Amino acid sequence: MPDTSGSDSKDDIISIQQLAGRVWLFPHDPDPGNIRGSVAIIADDRGSVIVDAGHSPAHAREIQSAMAAAGLPAASWLVYTHHHWDHTWGACAWPDVEIVGHVAGREILQNEAARPWSHRYLRDEVRANPRLGPSFRARALAMDTWDGFTIRPPQRVFTDELTLPTGVRLRHVGGAHAPDSTVVLVPDSAVALLGDCFYPPPAHLRAPDDGPDLAMLGGLVSGDYEWYVDSHDDPWTREQAVANGLV
């Protein structure tokens, strides 16, 4: 995909990219240790829809700078594909947006917001449960400061499906990775944003035989959508899914 950020700065290592139609991506970090997924921007003259908040306020601010450089409208809605930290911890850096998510994630995030997050707290939790190590070490690396940090539960929730004023469709799919997993569909651009919905459970909850939910994934691939984006990999097409035997 072409780099359309419009920036010539040598410091802009990561830039926003147009995937198809009005869907743009701020790409994931390929280093799995950083647990930093892609963030989608669905640009509309009524205000952009941001799909996932970024894994930290600093990440969110990088995305905002890239949006401004590309001339995209400011965010009006922020949609959570699910409640996990790497999809929600940037939310406090998105002012003046309506946060939308599945009802199953609201109470989880309310409970998460009450925890005393700090580097010391992360270390104490890992000592108590070493299986949390990869996730909590990534959180520590993501957060250069805790000043002003808050976890923001969704303000608007839905149960099965919801269509935003811009025509963006949200559909709850659940699954083993997170009970509130939601796919975000942009029919006019033929793009399906899958979050982590078909991934196995998080590492600290994963059994040795847990793997991707390929049955769910195959059911999500349809002739209505050409592009598919899961959060921690490069975008792929329906043609690639067919070639790999998913449909």
Automatic annotation (TrEMBL):
It holds the Pfam family Lactamase_B. It comes from the Bacteria. This is MBL fold metallo-hydrolase. It comes from Micromonospora sonneratiae. Residues 36-246 form the Metallo-beta-lactamase domain.
